[in-house]
Design a protein that fits this description.
Elements lengths: L10 H15 L8 E4 L9 E9 L2 E7 L7 E4 L7 H15 L2 H4 L2 E8 L5 E7 L5 H14 L2 E6 L2 E4 L4 E8 L2 E8 L8 H13 L7 E5 L7 H4 L6 E4 L3 H13 L5 E4 L3 H8 L18 E6 L8 H7 L4 E6 L2 H11 L3 E9 L9 E8 L1
Parallel strand pairs: 1-16, 6-7, 11-12, 11-14, 12-13, 14-15
Antiparallel strand pairs: 2-3, 2-5, 3-4, 5-6, 7-8, 9-10, 15-17, 16-17
């Protein structure tokens, strides 16, 4: 994100421009009317990371314009960051600059906050962290009322915990999520709530069972599980799998099984290419799958997972990359109709648009 592009007064115009580009890109697919879900024009990011620029014995937050990584821009606040991030930024910097042990060779700071007010700060150093640092960090933790992690090469010091608990309001229900430092979470909680509501809307009359690939910490699994008899979810990250299990328990979800494996591996399991010990606790034959939910990385769906998806009556596809989404939809359109298409402005003032698609078998 270029710093000068953040202008709340031009929010609608920047979104209109992105929509025009997307409609032009997807013109050959004859999309239905696009549902547009906007973001707050400021203070929408619950996560942020900053380089630390050390100069004249003082640490400063710094960002870089794209392509200008040797020219830091010193900043004091972050308009797109949550109000909690902006509240913590000056207080943290004052504390760091008042103590040489906290400041020395600090080169990066990461913030993870929630709509419910929790915050976790990670301080990353180019030096080992000792007992003196840990004692001072404990004092800082109490002063700022946050959780703190110290990191350096091959070192991670937890003062208490490495996660926050987010509480999202979706269609009249409060959903609880553990969000772990360093793991993927939706950065724009306001838009995330809208995404979950959209997914609810298009699955509330669902029948049968759901297969979900790339489930992460169960962000979509939690609300969607209430519309299906059973859910089988897969995720490759061990940390995310553990967080998902925690989130299922916290939200009273009892009809979900989760397997730690990639989508490519699961496709091999479905096709009986080879057995997987990680699926030994799951009887695949007991599922009556009617729908598949996919939220892949920017590379989109690989060819085998595309073929697997085409076996389902209903496909719910959430994409963080319109380019790979277009390629995937071009192939999926041979077997499925695009019934609904939505865009979610997760990252205002950038070229990025998150998309959601509902496909039904022809």
């Amino acid at each position: 994100m270029a710093i000068h592009q953040v202008a709340p007064e031009s929010y609608e115009q920047q979104l209109d421009h992105k929509l025009a580009l997307l409609k032009r890109q997807f013109a050959t697919l004859c999309l239905p009317e696009i549902d547009v879900y906007t973001s707050p024009s400021s203070h929408y990011r619950q996560r942020a990371e900053f380089k630390i620029w050390q100069e004249n014995g003082r640490a400063n937050y710094a960002m870089y314009e794209p392509g200008e990584y040797k020219k830091p821009y010193v900043i004091s606040d972050f308009l797109v960051g949550s109000e909690r991030i902006n509240q913590l930024m000056p207080a943290l910097l004052d504390a760091v600059n008042s103590n040489e042990t906290l400041r020395k060779r600090l080169f990066q700071v990461e913030f993870l906050t929630t709509k419910s007010g929790e915050a976790l700060i990670t301080l990353i150093y180019h030096r080992p962290l000792d007992d003196e640092w840990q004692g001072l960090a404990q004092q800082l933790k109490a002063q700022l009322k946050v959780d703190i992690i110290g990191r350096s090469r091959k070192q991670k010091l937890l003062l208490d915990r490495d996660f926050v608990i987010e509480k999202l309001q979706v269609d009249g229900s409060e959903l609880i999520y553990k969000q772990v430092e360093g793991s993927f979470t939706q950065p724009n909680a306001h838009v995330c709530e809208k995404m979950l509501s959209w997914a609810n809307k298009h699955t509330h009359n669902a029948k049968g069972d759901l297969l979900e690939l790339y489930c992460g910490n169960g962000n979509f699994t939690v609300p969607l599980s209430r519309h299906f008899s059973k859910v089988l979810a897969t995720e490759i990250s061990k940390t995310s799998v553990e967080a998902a299990k925690f989130n299922f328990a916290q939200n009273g979800i009892e009809n979900v099984e989760i397997a730690r494996m990639s989508s490519e591996e699961f496709t091999q399991a479905m096709d009986h290419v080879r057995p997987f010990r990680r699926l030994s606790h799951i009887d695949l034959s007991s599922y009556q799958f009617s729908s598949i939910f996919v939220d892949p990385p920017r590379a989109g769906l690989d060819d085998d997972t595309l073929s697997l998806s085409q076996r389902f009556d209903n496909i719910i596809y959430v994409s963080c990359n319109p380019d790979t989404l277009f390629d995937n939809l071009t192939k999926l359109s041979a077997t499925h109709l695009i019934e609904h298409f939505a865009v979610f402005d997760q990252f205002p003032y950038t070229h990025h648009l998150e998309c959601g698609v509902i496909l039904r078998r022809r």
